Fold:
Amino acid sequence: MEATADKSATPPAGGDLAGAPRARPGSGDGGMLGGLRKVKRFTFVDVVLWLLRIGVAFVVIGGAIGTLIKGRYEASQWVDFVVFGLTIGGVYALLALGYTMVYGILRQINFAHGDTMMAGAFSAYFAANYFKRNGMLESDAVIAMVVTVLVAMIVCTLVALTVERICYRPFRHVRSLAPLICAIGASFFIQHTFRAMYGSTVRSFPDTSWLNGDVSLLGGSMPVTQVLVIGSAAAAMLVLYLVVHKTRMGKAMRAVSEDRDAAAMMGIDINRVIVFTFTLGASMAGIGGILYMLVYKQVYFFMGFLPGIKAFTAAVLGGIGNIPGAMFGGIFLGLVESVGPALFLDGLGVPAPYQLKDAIAFTVLIMVLVFRPEGLLGERRAKRA
Amino acid sequence: MALLSVDELCVHYGKIEALHDVSLTVDEGQVVALIGANGAGKSSLLKAISGIVGVASGSIRFRDQVLTDCAPHEIVRHGVVQVPEGRRIFSRLTVQENLDMGAFLRRDHAEVRRDFERAFAMFPRLRERRNQVAGTLSGGEQQMLAMARALLSKPQLLLLDEPSMGLAPILVDLVFDSIEAIRKDGVTILLVEQNAFVALQIADIGYVLETGSIVLRESGPALLENDAVKRAYLG
Structure:
């Protein structure tokens, strides 16, 4: 009763919101006037967009049919592709969370996030090597790995908080591109600092007995590494979800991302929430860095760049600012990247489809930006008063 | 001594002067209403008190605290809490989580639980919708949530910015009834309203703000009878 009284008597506030969806069906589908207007608005840009759509549909459908007819891959190979997609997708998801949470709070992209991950992977590499030398990596693997993960998380947090302090805090109250440009600068700075300190050789995570081999799971066998990576990524995301939804600071973070001033008026210290957000994102990047290193067995100064951009893509894909969106986007991107070359490109007769997996990832980014800029899960934007 | 005293306050947005030499006092236990046309600077004054906009000159004191250079969250800690214009509830959080944000600074958990009960007693609809996402509430319910949220931070001075905005008359009455109830609980209130008639009815003191300056200060009943006010704001 209260609700109806409220709506009918307040045209300025209620009418605006209620009126918008009502107007849409008339102009969108079926209505004579709407139809006419649509015809007139069919411009050159629309032609290009339709060509894009048709092109992508052709590659996806045509390629898939071609591949399936050729029948070059067995079922077990498809399973491998999917499992690898989940593995790398989990890593992208962990990294994407950092982008999306910082964006939610600051409305800024932290382009140094990939290099934060690299710093974490490097420190984990050194920690793991230390444990390798004293034998704990074999004898007390759990303790050694827990410490390694903690080292990575702490180093990532220190790097991220330094970036926040230098690149973002000074620009808090001005609207400008300066933080973004500063973060790109910081990204190069971190990369080249590591290059200067540790050279540009590619190192790899120390070999351990428990990381090699397969485990039998669900009737098939999977490499231990992939099971470990998928499991850790899922566990980390679950913990993050609980932190964001159940803790006092997590709730404050969501409140600030929705309405910073209103949150401040509730007594929430915005700076502390920002520090908390960067810490959470960096911790996820630390875990992600270790997992990435386990998957690709590579540690070098430039390793953060590509996964960083991919994770950013994943965040955009899920709807930047949206936490479940980042998780979904990461896994989706991992799957597309892993299954895509075989499924879509092989059937079209592309000679080396795997060389195009990055091209697929960025095609996804461009398509999302063109056709669905709010992302697949679409962030419900906060209303501004 | 006044609970809140604002002295010769000036606020600028770039080159535009929003408030010019505004002075105002609120005594403990009072309801003070600030009325004026759209754009007169009413909201700017509340935002300046809450620390959301910067102050060009002048001072804001609460008890013996100077608030002028405090960050917004410190001002809340001192006991000055605002229910902002347009309610500004966190629409993606649940009703319960919104209220948790109101109690963000408090560590006296037993007391907080009691205050939750009091808030739910004052606004029973909120109890029913406790686990609902706040964005799905009606306008009236959102206003109640915004007020309950502010009350949970245990304010000594409550700043209300346009609590009647966009509400049906029956809900306006309800909101103002709860403002009376809040006052009876010993909370001092500074109320900004365009709906001068309802505001002045419950106000001990009324101020009239015109283009950034205070032009009148009278008791609530006196302002209701004032010819100039009648013509300009009461129709």
